[in-house]
Please model this.
Amino acid sequence: MMNTDTNQIARGLRRRDVALLQLLVEQYQYRLVRYLTYLLGRRDAVDDLVQETWLRVLERGHSYDGKSRFEPWLFTVARNLAFDHMRKRRTSSLDTNDTLEPPASPAPSPFEQAARTEDAQRLAQSLATLEPHYREALVLRFQEDLSLEEMAGVVGAPVSTVSSRIYRGLAALRAQMEGTSHAR
Model:
C-alpha cells in the first residue's frame, strides 16, 4: 500500500472503494490517533473522532483530487472534526457550568506509556504543556513529516505562520526541557 500513488487513492475514493479505505485505515490509523490525541491534548473522544474521520473520508473522498499527498488532506478532515467537537464541548460546558478540562488524571497519556526512556517521557510531558497550536505544529512537522506547505494547508494558515509556530514551539519546548532537567 505504501506505493499507492495519490491518483490511485483519489480514483478509489471517488468509487467509494471499501477495500481501498480498509488499506488506508490500516496504513494511517495509528498516525490519526496520535495526531488527534496531541491536537486535543487528551485521549477521550479520540476513538469517536477517528471513526468519524474515516466516515467522512468515505463520504467526501470525491473532494480529494490526488494532486497532493493524501496525509495533509486526511489530517485536515480530522482537524476540522476535532475543532467542531471542541466547539460543541465548550458550548455544552458553558451551558452546564462544567469545567472544560477534566480533573488531572494520574494515569500517563498514551504517548507517555509508549515512552521507553526517561528523556522520551520528559519530552512527552513537556510537549503536552505547550499551547495547542505549537503542539500541533511540532507534531505535524516532526512526527507526521509534513512539509511547511502541507502544514499550512492543514491548519489554514500561511507558511510564515506555520514556520513561526514551529520556531516558537521548539523554543518553548527547549525551555520546558531545560527547566525540567535543571529541576532534577
Observations:
- The two ends are 46 Å apart (CA to CA).
